[in-house]
Amino acid sequence: MHRELGNIKVFYECDHAFHHTIAKAAKHPGATTFVNQTRLQLTRVRSLVVVEQGHMESVIKEHLQILKALDSGTIDQALKAMQFHLDTVYATIERLKNAHADFFVDKK
What we know:
Layout: H1 2-26, H2 31-37, H3 39-49, H4 55-72, H5 75-99
Helix pairs in contact: 1-2, 4-5
């Protein structure tokens, strides 16, 4: 169990570093600020989902697809990979909101 918790901590750190690096490389005003501002919210979501079988592996595969596309310079593939990743994240958040409503505040 201790080894698994260590892997989760490394996953959190790598996941944040990945998002921060992409935002910084984008050179878009506010991208890095946005990543930093959403870190706490993402950490809460990660804490609910990271223990699910195969979740970390799926996220790593999605990140690798994004990196592969960026590295090859195929912007359309990078955009598709990023959109797929974001769609997956949003779907996961919706699923978690339904399963753990007490962890989320609806600001409607």
